[in-house]
Amino acid sequence: MANPNKARGTAWESSVRNFLNGSLGLVDETGRFLDPWNPRNVRRPAQEGWADVGDVHAPPFVIEAKDVRAPAVPTWLRQARVEARHAGFPFGVVVHKSRGLGAGAGRVHFDVRTWTRTRTALGLPTRAMFERYGFAASLRGLDTGRWYLTTTVDQFARILADMHRAGVPRAVR
Hints:
The protein is an alpha+beta fold. Helices cover 39% and strands 16% of the residues.
């Protein structure tokens, strides 16, 4: 790959995918899917046409993966929402790489609406959601469109597992 930034981004997307598949028990020890047709498998979709469908699909989430030094989380979250809509998924989140750490330590950012809808789908009160998954809030200024909640990729894998156990379908709206 000629572009080193593209190569770094692709490697980060693959690391997130591999970590989530391993954490969810969807792959064997060699990284092969246990059931290639399982709709819960975490995949990197091929980009087709003009409508970007996100970097990683972890049903019911579309993940926008970012491996950059300077975060622009509110902008990325808007992008994730659009890409989730293009892919037909109900939730869009951002996974930002933490420098020098593995995929499990990456930061997963939720906008307030996505976090609330996820919490509701899991049937959890606000405090339980914060405590169970180790969320931290970033409430900057009075513009709620710039607020977001953050956890780790490791905790995000627990959210995915709990959503699968709860029977949350891919197309929850």
